[in-house]
Amino acid sequence: MKLPILIHPDPRLKKVSTPVDDLSDTLRTLANDMFETMYDAPGIGLAAPQVGVLQRLIVLDCVKGEDEAPRPIAMFNPEVIAASDEKNIYDEGCLSIPEQYAEVERPAEVTVRWMDIEGAEQEETFDGLWATCVQHEIDHLEGKLFIDYLKPLKRQLITRKMVKLKRELARG
Ligand SMILES: [Zn+2]
User: Fold this and answer.
1) 58 CA to centre of ligand 1 in angstroms
2) Edge-to-edge strands of the sheet including 121-127?
């Protein structure tokens, strides 16, 4: 089932999400619904708070080429356990901040530990777009958005555009 995505500004996008203790069927269904919502958008990552659920769950698939097999990964309680000194700059966007993009600098390589959808612990080192995406999604679990890395003026400009967009959407 496709879920509605919250648009910034929304107080739920600023909250710290709580860890997942037990993998319930409800959470597995949520992960599947989040994949459906993300692919439909289309996007390469989605965090549970973006669909109004304040639990530490993110989904991502940064495979871009059409001839490449998709690689959907659901991460419960993801944690960056190591980050490279080397940085990378990407033009980031966010499904909660539609059609706005800005350059953000982050570690080029990160090692992430998480619990998978079967409840098993996983660990992997990501680079390139995957590294940026996984850090962006984990930030959502801390109530942090990519625009929080920008200068205040630029951030306010984007926020004002989103307020306007939400007003238009509410009017229908
Ligand atoms: Zn985002």
Assistant:
1) 10
2) 45-47, 57-60, 73-83, 109-115, 121-127
